[in-house]
Write a structure and sequence with these properties.
J domain-containing protein, Helix Hairpins, 66% helix, Monooxygenase, HscB_oligo_C, binds zinc ion, two-stranded antiparallel sheet, 2 domains, chaperone, HscB_C_sf, 240 residues
């Protein structure tokens, strides 16, 4: 019985994560992104010099050097100077992220116009969000899927029974654990499996196997939910 309840809890968590509202927002974002790419010729002129200049780092007018308004629909890969694909070098990602944050750092705009001050804060938070999305394999995978115009599955149909059974057993092991060493071992196992799945995503995206990508992303969510359970159990052991 407990096994069934655990499985149910996991399913609920995963379903919450994939709420239709969230998906429709993502779809709208994707649609806007597509529209923007299509209408690049009619991109807005610089708010300061009124010229339709090229932008440096997608943010700065190359004519007058003023920081432009935030482009909330920008492709995160473009923003962080990466090709739009799953495989990326994480050290380079961090390096590009820090460079961008230096460019828009609020200190650099403290004696500039209030519009640029606002823009620097807006860009800074967008750059953070883009970095967090691309740095985490599951987030990066979902973001790429969304750029492809694909939705995450709303149910467990992408999963096979064996996987679901294994996850239920895993949940039971977490519940039954009575010491932190057991939990650490369980966590190490989950970490390893998540790494393997990130590798698998790499090949699946390269092969344009969208169904495979979806299935793997859902599996990763299950594993992350188990990892969450491990953390909670660890805290409750510390508290007792
Ligand atoms: Zn300008």
């Amino acid at each position: 019985m407990r096994c069934v309840i655990n499985g149910f809890k996991t399913a609920v968590r995963v379903t919450n994560y994939l709420s239709p509202a969230r998906n429709s927002i993502q779809f709208e974002r994707f649609r806007l992104h597509a529209v923007r790419q299509f209408s690049v010729e009619s991109s807005p002129a610089c708010w300061n010099c009124q010229k339709k200049s090229n932008l440096r780092q997608n943010m700065i007018c190359s004519d007058c050097g003023h920081l432009q308004d935030v482009d909330a629909e920008i492709n995160y890969f473009d923003l962080l100077s990466f090709p739009t694909k799953f495989s990326l070098e994480s050290q380079k990602l961090t390096k590009n992220f820090r460079q961008l944050q230096t460019i828009v750092h609020p200190d650099k705009f403290s004696n500039k116009t209030s519009r640029e001050q606002t823009n620097s804060a807006d860009w800074s938070s967008l750059i953070n969000k883009a970095y967090k999305t691309l740095a985490t394999p599951i987030e990066r995978g979902q973001y790429l899927l969304q750029l492809e115009g694909e939705q995450m599955p709303q149910d467990n149909s992408a999963l096979n029974k064996e996987f679901l059974m294994a996850m239920m057993e895993r949940n039971e092991e977490v519940e039954d654990a009575v010491d932190s060493q057991t939990l650490e071992d369980l966590n190490a196992q989950v970490v390893k499996e998540l790494e393997d799945m990130a590798q698998k995503l790499n090949s699946l995206f390269a092969a344009k196997d969208i169904q495979g990508v979806k299935g793997t992303l859902v599996e990763m969510k299950y594993l992350l939910s188990i990892q969450n359970g491990i953390k909670q159990k660890q805290q409750s052991l510390l508290g007792s």
